[in-house]
Amino acid sequence: MTLPDGYRLTRLDDDSRLREVIALDAWAFPTEVAFDELLRLEQPLPWGRVWGVEHGGSAPGLAAMYGAYALSAYPVPGAETACGWLTWVGVHPGHRRRGLLREMIAHHFADCLERGEAISGLTAAEAAIYGRFGYGMAAPQVSLTIPRGAALRPIAGSAALAVEMHEWDAARHGPVVARLHRAYARVPEGIGRPGWASWETPELRRAQDQDPPALRQGLEAQRLLLITNAAGEPRGYARFRRKSAWNRDVADGTVQVRDAVALDAAAAHRLWSVLLDLDLMARIEAGPLPVDDPILSLLVDARAAMPTTRDLQWIRILDLPRALAGRRYAAPADVVLEVTDALIPANAGRWRVRVDASGRAEVARSEDPAELRLDIRELGAAHLGTVSLAALAQAGLVDVADGSHAALARAATAWSWPIAAGGSWVF
């Protein structure tokens, strides 16, 4: 790692540097929350995997920083893998254009590889930044604004489920929500949803459980909707806040859904039926949601929900053979890839990927002619099974060798997954 003169990288092991970190973050990401209130919030910072770039000039202090969440069970198609999730990336505006971000990314890659993490992921504040470091957009999201009373298609068993409404209590409700959220990564049974990251670290859990007034943006305190079956077992939840408004004496309130999870179709129907029928509300705002979330199929008129899509999760493959062998595939395949990687030379070159009938892959170096040529960015984009290799080829981002169109079809089918990758939070 080569930083400019006057800069050095240092590990931030504990919250003794919290004031500096929050001050830098507020420079990089402007906020309306007062500094003293920010200091009182539960922060998800992964101390020990937070790194600061210190500047020793006339105004010493943190010039830049990044952190990495250690996600040991990040869902990929048919499996879970260790992932170093890049987060809290920021450069002070007085220290930009000096290569600090490039050097922090290089350090992050090396640190992840040393820890045995074959992939890195992130949610991007600016979508144009991370592609040049080999991250590919692998999981889109959808946001909805659903009119109150929107009709849902009937689902058997929905009416028999019980509804509980609670004022949020982190000590009481946090474990229930975390358990349901974690379980949803394996729904549908035998398939699971890639990208559905849970709150694995204690810091993430505490930050997720908090409901400070400073973060409510004028809405009420958080509420919890819980759906239970006849045995009293929770089958779904939604965390939400309401904001009252009136328009010429007509109720015009908004329900903001923080996250909504249901483990089966009946629970999903019951949950959304309640959210769509709250008094004095005119609309329900929800997102990020996976692009195939059940609510989109349940709505009789999904168009009226005004769906908007954008990027959510970006994946960077760090150790190509381990990453490709660590996921499962939707169909057998035997394909030779030629991969370029400007930042991690060990990934570059030709690789044969053989997928057996069980969906498991063997990945090895090959001297055979390449059938598909692509950059590591496109391989990362396809890694969660939602972005199609064939679609990338159609866009000119995967080069198909002469006579290898059948190989593209086989590879695109194998790399796909029956459920769209997605998550419920930005981190």
TrEMBL record:
Q: Which UniProt keywords apply?
A: Acyltransferase, Transferase
State which Enzyme Commission number(s) the record gives: 2.3.1.-
* Gene3D superfamilies referenced in this protein's UniProt entry, alphabetically: 3.40.630.30, SCP2 sterol-binding domain
Q: Which of the seven top EC classes does this enzyme belong to?
A: transferase
* Assembly and oligomerization: Homohexamer; trimer of dimers.
What is the similarity comment for this entry?
Belongs to the acetyltransferase Eis family.
Q: Which NCBIfam families match?
A: PRK01346.1-4
The molecule here is called: GNAT family N-acetyltransferase
Lineage, highest ranks first: Bacteria, Bacillati, Actinomycetota, Actinomycetes, Micrococcales
